[in-house]
Write a structure and sequence with these properties.
This protein is 22% helix and 30% strand. It has 186 residues and is an alpha+beta fold. Bound molecules: zinc ion.
């Protein structure tokens, strides 16, 4: 396993974040290696999700770890089905370091995808997990959360300050980009 470099908006490789991605068709050792690298890179960066274009790979795939009990999930060729409801909350992104903005997302959805063996899976998700799935699926369609924000993009120091005013128990360790739900988490 190896750490991959995360493409951020302040580098000249940003265009990779806007490109079309290809469907994954070969479920081979290389794909497993990429998935393992992406998981390692996501954890190293303290994120809860990471999409392939963020490490410069134009494939329809992402990894996430929203629920520690469930652990790491590798999502290949995702398809969001039956999104329901709407919720506005702060999100961050490993490709937009230290910046956060409010985005409207469905509160629950179903996700059809393929696992690393190529088997079709379907899961239901709500709350932060649904938000993360939408954020990462956007990435593989070349869409950034900054395209969708309501109001301003704000720096994390400001967010921490505002959050501390609202809830003195919260601290910096709550910030987990890609994507993050600060207001309701914990
Ligand atoms: Zn992101």
């Amino acid at each position: 396993m190896a750490l991959r470099n995360i493409v951020t908006v302040d580098t000249d490789r940003t265009s990779v974040l806007r490109k079309k991605t290809r469907i994954v068709e070969k479920f081979d050792e290389r794909l497993k290696e990429l998935a393992a690298d992406m998981i390692e890179t996501m954890h190293e960066a303290n994120g809860v999700g990471l999409a392939a274009p963020q490490v410069g790979i134009l494939r329809r795939m992402f990894v996430m770890n929203v629920d520690p009990e469930e652990g790491d999930l590798v999502i290949i060729n995702p398809e969001i089905i039956d999104p329901e409801g709407a919720d506005v909350a702060y999100e961050g992104c490993l490709s937009v370091p230290q910046m956060y903005g409010q985005v409207k997302r469905p509160t629950r959805l179903k996700l059809k995808y393929q696992d690393l063996q190529g088997e079709v899976q379907e899961i239901e998700a709500e709350g932060l997990k649904a938000r993360c799935i939408c954020h990462e699926t956007d990435h593989i369609n070349g869409i950034m959360f900054t395209d969708k924000i309501i109001g301003e993009l704000i720096h994390e120091s400001k967010l921490i300050e505002d959050e501390a005013k609202r809830d003195p128990k919260s601290s910096e360790q709550d910030l987990k980009p890609d994507s993050v739900e600060i207001i309701e988490e914990n």
